[in-house]
Design goal:
GO terms for molecular function: peptidyl-prolyl cis-trans isomerase activity. It is found in: Cytoplasm. One of its GO terms (cellular component) is cytoplasm. It is built from one helix and nine strands; from the N terminus they run βββαββββββ. With 146 residues, the chain is mainly β. It folds into two domains: 76 residues, Chitinase A, domain 3; 52 residues, Thrombin, subunit H. Strands 1, 2, 3, 4 and 9 form a five-stranded antiparallel β-sheet that branches. A hairpin with a 4-residue loop joins strand 1 and strand 2. It starts with 8 loop residues before the first strand and ends with a strand. 14% of the residues are buried.
């Protein structure tokens, strides 16, 4: 059988973990992932590691933050007056809120994680929770469906 090429669709199993070993995502034999090479369903670095693989082959790849969930951007961490939430909720660190953000004159609902609660305000982070962290993938190629 030919190894994985650009126009192939493949079936894979994988685990995605932080470098600490904390599991982020897993697709096993009971729920494998089908990936069309070049489709962008998985990050480009993982797609690239599939090239040349043959069924049954395994690879481990470390994906840098900029190629995974992006770098952590300080400008996406903001303070919001605690009075804004008065009577609506009791903010706690770790809570994820859906906040309205104005972009180009339109309102968009965006998730934000509360990182700190102070006497008069809260700190929210609009970055993806995995931003700034490298991800380690262990990928096994199951089949190539050309």
């Amino acid at each position: 059988m030919c190894p994985v090429a650009l126009t192939d669709t493949v079936t894979v199993t994988y685990t995605a973990s932080l470098e600490t070993g904390e599991l982020i995502d897993k697709r096993d034999e009971t729920n494998p992932a089908t990936v069309s090479i070049g489709s962008g369903v998985v990050c480009r670095a993982v797609e690239a590691c599939l090239f040349g693989m043959e069924p049954g082959q395994k690879r481990v790849i470390r994906v840098d933050p900029e190629d995974a969930y992006g770098l952590h951007q300080k400008e996406l961490v903001q303070q919001i007056p605690l009075a804004h939430f008065q009577g609506k909720l009791d903010p706690k660190p770790g809570m994820i809120l859906s906040l309205a953000v104005d972009k180009d004159g339109e309102q968009h609902q965006v998730p934000a994680t509360i990182t700190e609660v102070h006497e008069d305000n809260i700190t929210v982070d609009y970055n993806h929770p995995l931003a700034g962290l490298p991800i380690v993938y262990q990928v096994t190629l199951i089949t190539i469906n050309s």
